[in-house]
TrEMBL record:
PROSITE patterns: CYTOCHROME_P450. It comes from Pseudonocardia sediminis. InterPro entries: Cyt_P450_B, Cyt_P450_CS, Cyt_P450_sf. This is Cytochrome P450. Coiled coil: none annotated. Residues 1-25 are annotated as: Disordered. PANTHER family: CYTOCHROME P450 YJIB-RELATED, P450, PUTATIVE (EUROFUNG)-RELATED. Belongs to the cytochrome P450 family. One of its GO terms (molecular function) is iron ion binding.
Length: 370
């Protein structure tokens, strides 16, 4: 067992303060054993080459059915097993490939680029509605902007964005009843998107693999909505803080922000489907694995692809959507609000990380736009 400080403990640090845990993880080797949030051992990959091998290894699965039986799914942050609820994030093999084929053309770079002007229009409208004085962008904007974009892409009616925000917030509750209500709200939003026919939800409905149920379709749309908020919301804060302090093209600012503050600092859970050997360590079947994306990104060499959106056949399906909506935000900030600035010194900004494998976010981002 490694003696490094627990990488899953909650923390608060200055925006420019280095992570105190990840250097120790890396020094401990390419594969480090630690204590999982839900109990028992977890093995953390800290090396880029090994991470890419893990992402591509068919003996390593994302199906939560392989998780240790003692784990509380809520504590661990697990989705339902693939047999119970098929999903892009949990299926493997041909079932995953078929679902991926249904999604891929609808979320491809060309398709997302076609909606870039609309993303800019949304950013312009929402920023323009904010007051002249100091406003904390983490109070509403960092949630509302990405959710409005994702709702627009899917075809969720604009007057349902507040419902989407409420559903996302309900997912963070410790009360199972509130989480259940949020899932019901997401199903209603998904149905509304399909009925509207104004976005990719209706197209996805026609592309789903044979045998897909209405509930299955709604779950895929829930995943796009919730992931679109969960990951891009914190990225908005880090990106705006960077854009107000540094010159640079929007694409480069987005790339560097996501490299330094990846939406998921660790990969989603993976489990060995059989006994395997990694980096000289023999792992039993059912061993939990994580890739330290944030730590590895910090040592990516120039020209090397970072791991901000994962890798292998589970590479994030919404990566192009996230990149373009963040670029659109920077472009609107630069063109419409050239005098925008932080309302506090940069040294006062704080990045807060919750317990577990979730990403960090800014506790507050007070800015003056005009």
């Amino acid at each position: 067992m490694s003696d490094v400080t627990c990488p899953f403990a909650p923390s608060t640090r200055g925006l420019d303060e280095p992570d105190p845990v990840r250097p120790a993880l890396r020094r401990s080797g390419p594969l480090v054993e630690a204590q999982a949030p839900a109990g028992g051992p977890v093995w953390i990959v800290t090396d880029a080459e090994l991470a890419r091998a893990v992402f591509a290894d068919p003996r390593i699965s994302k199906d939560p059915a392989l998780a240790p039986p003692s784990w509380d799914p809520r504590v661990a942050g697990l989705e339902p097993p693939a047999a119970q609820q098929p999903a892009l994030t949990t299926l493997e093999g041909e079932a995953h490939a078929a679902l991926r084929r249904a999604h891929a053309p609808l979320l491809a770079a060309r398709r997302m680029l076609a909606g870039y002007d609309q993303m800019m229009a949304i950013a312009r409208e929402l920023l323009g509605a904010l007051g002249d004085g100091p406003v904390d962008l983490t109070e509403d904007f960092s949630t509302r902007y990405p959710l409005t974009v994702v709702c627009d892409v899917l075809g969720v009616p604009r007057d349902r964005v507040d419902d989407a925000i409420a559903a996302c917030r309900g997912m963070y509750s410790d009360d199972p009843a509130l989480v259940g209500a949020a899932m019901g709200a997401f199903a209603d939003l998904a149905a509304a998107a399909v009925r509207s026919g104004d976005g990719i939800a209706a197209e996805l409905a026609g592309r789903m693999p044979s045998g897909t149920t209405g509930d299955d379709l709604h779950y895929q749309l829930f995943a796009l909505l919730f992931a679109g908020q969960l990951t891009t919301d914190p990225a908005v804060g880090f990106l705006v803080a960077r854009a107000l302090a540094e010159p640079g093209e929007p694409e480069e600012l987005v790339r560097e922000t996501l490299r330094e503050h990846p939406p998921a600092p660790f990969s989603l859970w993976r489990f060995t489907a059989t006994e395997i050997e990694l980096a000289g360590t023999r792992l039993p079947a059912g061993a939990p694995l994580l890739v330290d994306i944030e730590g590895i990104n910090g040592h990516i060499t120039p020209g090397e692809q970072d791991l901000s959106f994962g890798g292998g056949h589970h590479y994030c399906a919404g990566a192009q959507l996230a990149r373009y909506e963040l670029q659109a935000l920077v472009e609107v900030l630069r063109t419409d609000h050239p005098d925008a600035r932080l309302a506090v010194s940069r040294s006062e900004l704080r990045a807060v990380s919750p317990a577990g494998i979730g990403g960090s976010r800014l506790a507050a981002l007070p800015v003056i736009l005009r």
